[in-house]
Design goal:
Blueprint (H helix, E strand, L loop, with lengths): L10 E5 L9 E9 L2 E14 L7 E6 H7 L5 E5 L2 E7 L5 E3 L9 E4 L15 H16 L7 H12 L5 E2 L3
Length: about 170
């Protein structure tokens, strides 16, 4: 049975901190918006749907929202394995995914005025394949590719990409 992607109304369950650690992995996201460079720290947290329909969900929560307002979007309970949190997916959350059908969908809870593209939260084999193809094309045009692909990649990542989408009922 294939996991269904997370949808509006799903209840996600996630640990407050992995066993033996003080906090979750911090993922620093950097992007350009309105001609300015922006950056924000997010906790990358493994979650699952309470119904069991989706497992291994990557949940990114803006660090300041998690540290200073967990109770605004989640309820906390104690279990034999430590504290867990539950949150219901609604229009406060956004998502990204590898394919339109929802493959490898991930969830983001943050200030929605932030507009990083989806690829800021994931690295895909697709991008690496595109990078290799770009380097081959540059060599055919007589360019050696030294630094050119990296410069084009940085330019592309800053200004092009798929926006995060807001969950809707």
């Amino acid at each position: 049975m294939t996991d269904k992607p997370v949808v509006f109304g799903d209840v996600l369950v996630f640990p407050l901190a992995p066993k033996g650690k003080d906090s979750h992995h911090i993922h620093n996201v950097q992007w350009s918006q309105g001609g300015m460079s922006c950056k924000e720290d997010y906790y990358a947290i493994p979650a699952k749907a309470e119904s069991g329909s989706a497992k291994g969900i990557a949940l990114f929560i803006q660090k300041s929202f998690f540290d200073n307002g967990l109770d605004k979007f989640a309820t906390v309970s104690e279990t034999a394995n430590g504290k867990i949190a539950r949150t219901t997916i609604d229009n406060r959350f956004q998502y990204g995914q590898q394919e339109q059908g929802g493959a490898k969908r991930f969830v983001v809870y943050h200030d929605k005025e932030h507009k990083p593209f989806q690829h800021r939260f994931m690295t895909t084999a697709t991008w690496m394949a595109e990078e290799a193809n770009a380097e081959k094309a540059l060599k055919k045009l007589g360019m050696d590719g030294n630094g050119t692909v990296d410069a084009l990649k940085l330019l592309g990542q800053n200004f092009f990409g798929d926006p995060l989408r807001t969950f809707e009922a």
